[in-house]
Amino acid sequence: MDNTIKEITVPFLREQGFKGSLPHFRRLQRDRINLLTFQFNLHDSKFVVEISNCSYKGILTSWGKLIKPAQYTAHDMNRRLRLGSVKNSGDYWFDFSNPMLFTDIYKKRAEEIIELWDEAEDWWQNDPNDQRNVMVPS
After folding, report:
1. What does the alpha-carbon distance between residue 31 and residue 14 come to, in Å, rounded to a whole number?
2. Which helix (DSSP H) or strand (DSSP E) does residue 120 occupy?
3. What does each C-alpha distance from 54 to 62, 69, 77, 99 come to in angstroms?
4. Which domain holds residue 99?
5. The model's pTM
6. pLDDT band for position 118 (cuts 50, 70, 90)
């Protein structure tokens, strides 16, 4: 699955302006940083794609750790969306455990991320949790 994501999805992410490497990517916007992180399940052949927004100014975690903008990941943010959750009306995992006859399941899941891309762009743009304004306390 990793190789197929690198072959299909990562070039697409680059075209969209993202930098980084598997599993963490970020894209600088005028007023925020868009975050995207892949998280693989340790026990099943599944993964999620989590997205979030964050501020350019840095964040202070609830446990007191200062994270600089270049080190942000979607996991550092309290509020995030799992790609596919809007379309599927709930928590969504990309499942690649069951091979399909005449279909490359890895390619199908990597392309599914691209098919769901509007969901991510809408969420980043609307910033429902206003995380682009979360700042480090002075």
Report:
1. 20
2. helix 117-126
3. 15, 8, 7, 37
4. 2-128
5. 0.87
6. very high
